[in-house]
Amino acid sequence: MTAATLPAPQRSRAWISARISAWPRAAQADGFWLGIVLALLSCLPVVCAHYPQMSDYPAHLARYYVMLDAARDPVLARYYGFTWQWTGNVGVDLAIRPLATLIGLEPAGRLITGIIPPLTAFGILAVEWSLRRRIGVGSFLALAFVWSPMMLIGLLNYALGQALALWAFAAWVMLGGRRWRWVLFLPVGLVVWACHLSAWGVLGVMVFGYEWQAGRSWRAFVAPWPLALPVAVMMFAHGTNGAFSYGAYWWVYKQAIWLKAMRDTSYPLDYLGEVLVGAAVLFAGIARRIDMRLGWAAALLLALSIALPRHISGGDYADYRMITAGLMVACLAIDLGPGKLDRAAYLALLFAAPGLYVARLAVTTLSWQADSAQTGRLLEALDHIPRGARVASAVLVPRDVWRLDHFEHIGAYAVFRNDALTNANFAVAHIHMLHLKVPFYADPSQRVMQPSGLRVDLSHFAPATDPAIPAGSAAQYLWYVGARQPDVLPAGAVVIWRGEGTLVARLANRGGTA
Length: 514
Fold this sequence. Notes:
Layout: H1 8-41, H2 44-48, H3 57-69, H4 74-79, E1 80-82, H5 91-103, H6 105-132, H7 137-142, H8 149-153, H9 156-174, H10 181-195, H11 197-215, H12 219-222, H13 229-236, H14 250-259, H15 267-286, H16 292-307, H17 318-333, H18 343-352, H19 355-378, E2 390-398, H20 413-418, E3 421-422, E4 434-436, E5 447-450, H21 462-465, E6 477-481, E7 494-499, E8 502-506
Parallel strand pairs: 2-3, 2-5, 2-6
Antiparallel strand pairs: 1-4, 6-8, 7-8
Helix pairs in contact: 1-6, 1-18, 5-6, 6-9, 9-10, 9-11, 10-11, 11-16, 15-17, 16-17
């Protein structure tokens, strides 16, 4: 007797039974398509903001601008030089060259910024798929770290490298057992390293953890050898210099970066999100639902956040990056599949898991949209600064405000809009590829850091007033940005334009005309 010839009540029971037996496949399909949609949505902040609101972003554009100009503009070449160095921190520097030629610098920067979040999100999904052949709770929780503080600050080379590291790890798993895998991963390791040294380290740790769980032997220590090609490059190629440093009061700093592991705009949401992630990982561990193929890597990355110094070869936040990567991998390690929970519980978790990501994405998108409009108003100041001027940028950064400041490097817009000399660039000698040809200040001299409510006194703001700077190199204009107008300006400064949260002043006796 077939199902079609059964009495109606029996046909109903047979249909329900078939649906129940097939539900794991349906749940996998739901997770797959939901994951695709969520990953595509990750670019919303860039789509909704004309000016990407990462604090470091304008300084990166200024570096690319000088790099692409290649000393052809005599006005720009008077102030800046660029020395290419083959280091583990040039991912976007390489990618921007062809794109900027085709569509212009600022559109190219925005395009690359918009590609990195989906590339990261799909990389997260690829990792879970490679391990479990499904998209589920672990990867949905991990999506909350697509817009981690590293991306929000604007560490673009690292963010790009981390995205590629996720894809590379997924490929490592998928190609397990292939004898030719090592041939492929020689260039893969080099590409990830070229994007960023720390991202290459994250990939190495993930591969080691996976291989350790597979065999628990010494072979796990040598298994990542195909990724080691950059070691030879670092031995023979000249790179940036810079000491390893933990910084002053390192124990206070370590606590601070752990508390800021999900820092963005909203303190309640960011702090609660970190608590929820920690609780989810803890409960999964108690329930023995941690996939140790990723669990070992998560533990190692989080341990490295304590052991590593803050500065490596001049780069900042070497340890901070390990926290966000470690928590992302820890979320990915959560293994709650449809066969391990009843249907209702699993579906509830499956659709609740992206909640933190969606909430953070919405807050980031709205804050970027609002601050992008504000950036457009602030940039009206550039209409009052002559081309080739020397500009002391001053940005008020309250110490007691949680949200990331989106305007810290806004002064760098004067470089690629006005060919100006500013102090908001990454141009520290022997560390950055961009360097100054004249005596002047570099990042972070533009920041006026003080608690909210204090008088804003710029009378001794060094980039605008330092008598040690020769007259021919001294700043001619002060461009101030802050939530409140300054109470005191440098002696002799004359305000020539005011806007909402900003002003431009001409400085007295500072080296003639631009």
